[in-house]
Amino acid sequence: MATRHSRSAARLMMAPAVVLLLGWMLVPLIMTLYFSFRNYFPLRPDRVPGWAGFSNYERFITSSSFWPSVQTTLVIVGGVLVITVLLGILLAMLLDQPMWGQGVVRILVIAPFFVMPTVSALVWKNMFMDPTNGLLAHLWRVFGAEPVAWLSQVPTGSIVMIVSWQWLPFATLILLTAIQSLDGEQLEAAEMDGAPPLKRFWFIILPHLARAITIVILIQTIFLLSIFAEIFVTTGGAFGTRTLTYLIFQRVLESQNVGLGSAGGVYAIILANIVALFLMRIVGKNLDA
Amino acid sequence: MARAVTTQRKAINTAIAWAIGLLIFFPILWTILTSFKTEAQAIADPPLFLNFDWTLENYAIVQDRSDYMRFLWNSVILAGGSTLLGIVIAVPAAWSMAFVPSKRTKDILLWMLSTKMLPAVGVLYPIYLLFIQLGLLDSRFGLVIVLMLINLPIIVWMLYTYFREIPGEILEAARMDGATLREEILYVLTPMAIPGIASTVLLNFILAWNEAFWTLNLTAVDAAPLTAFIASYSSPEGLFFAKLSAASTMAIAPILILGWFSQKQLVRGLTFGAVK
């Protein structure tokens, strides 16, 4: 049993981490809130700083680039989620089957996750999606088709493709871990009772995976809402690939309209917190177990 | 009991899985291959797979032109420094939460997790401004701190889930035998915790190495790591596929190797212990 002495020692040991994270959370958050109510243009001495009330919040959502950016964000996050979860389930079930060289295949499948975002974006952009010298252009020409200028003709789709390649390993790995914890005897019993494969999948495997799928969706959503490098080095936000994150980045650092960008930042924080709330509930339940 | 699987079925599984595995791995393989080609061979149509004159000249050019080693060194310092600093701060915290839990432990853990969910772009300007004011812009020290802070929640969580698996009775027994808190941590806990700590270090080193928001926005020249170095290739000049490939291969090779060792920890670390 913990003594009073060890309890106070424990509190002391927790203090540095708690204090640092508290500072890391509160200081920038309060500053962002403060800026969001100000007119603030650090590079424009001719514009007098002052209180803006809610005008930044209003202007951010009424600007012509707001709704397109929300739409782009939804398409990218939604597209990547659908692709990675569906393919992830199929891949995890495949990798769970008996085969030769399973360990090596798993390594091949997981590898993209370890490639830094700037590298995967640039490699895809140039070596695969380049309309003259890219590998896909070569492939298209083999079949006598006109090469596609991926990042200008289907820019959002191309980014979904690149990001899905990066995140498929994550979904696969987590779903594989979950599948491997499935009780083999249950499946066997179902098979002996004559349940066809599709039914075994629908009534046994899928319900078993439900929690893992939810976790994959929530964690990926949080990371995908803030993808940055993949857009930064491919299109730079052009051709309608400006996500909410990218729009705020441009407002704050490129056009140095700090008030407007900060109001956008507050919206982004609220959005992320809504997703986070669901994730925390699941993780929290797991802590009690 | 495991069912007997026919050899034929196993062969089919193997063929499909290898085909898909190679397809997913292909962009990486292609990058590595291209890094050994000349620029002309890199864009040859039809593409050359293995039948080209292997050369190392791209690696030499990349190093000569842009002082690759400096960026590599920055990546090592940023990833290594932030991870070690994070471990030093997180071990005591995770220890106390795992072995002396209180009513609030769970709330604190969840709150720490919530700081990880804060979108970076929402606090970009304040951090940028603080960095300017404190003279930290483009400094390794500033970036080590930021990377440490963004990974600290994951470090605490991972250590916590590992520490919780260590039976508390052993610690109690040591205490009964008169071990002080210091001795208890140093001689009893640490040896049992080393594997967990090693896994945590590994995963967080990888995460910090690949971090590409703060490293792109808070560095210019002096502290720029490999993520920023590679991003500088986004405005191409002439033929550059082979050089881009050489630079990319060097940037990802160390992490690919480390990553293969950390597959298992990846699941635990990134799901905050919710999937094991």
How many β-strand runs of chain B? 0
> What's the rounded overall pLDDT mean of chain A?
85
Arithmetic mean pLDDT of chain B? 84
CATH superfamily of the largest domain in chain B: MetI-like
| Major sheet characteristics of chain B | none
Domain unit count of chain A: 1
The spatial strand order of the largest sheet of chain A comes to 1-2
- Count of extended strands of chain A: 2
Oligomer: heterodimer
Provide the structure class of chain B. Answer: mainly alpha
Q: What distance separates the N and C termini of chain A?
A: 21 Å
Percent range for β-strand residues of chain B: under 5%
Q: Count every helix of chain A, treating DSSP H or I runs of 4 or more residues as helices.
A: 13
- Structural class of chain A, by secondary structure, is mainly alpha
The largest chain-to-chain contact, stated as pair and per-chain residue counts, equals: A-B, 106 and 98 residues
Radius of gyration of chain A: 24 Å
Q: Indicate the overall shape of chain B.
A: globular
Question: Sheet bearing the most strands of chain A, described?
Answer: 2 strands, antiparallel
Report the uncertain regions of chain B. none
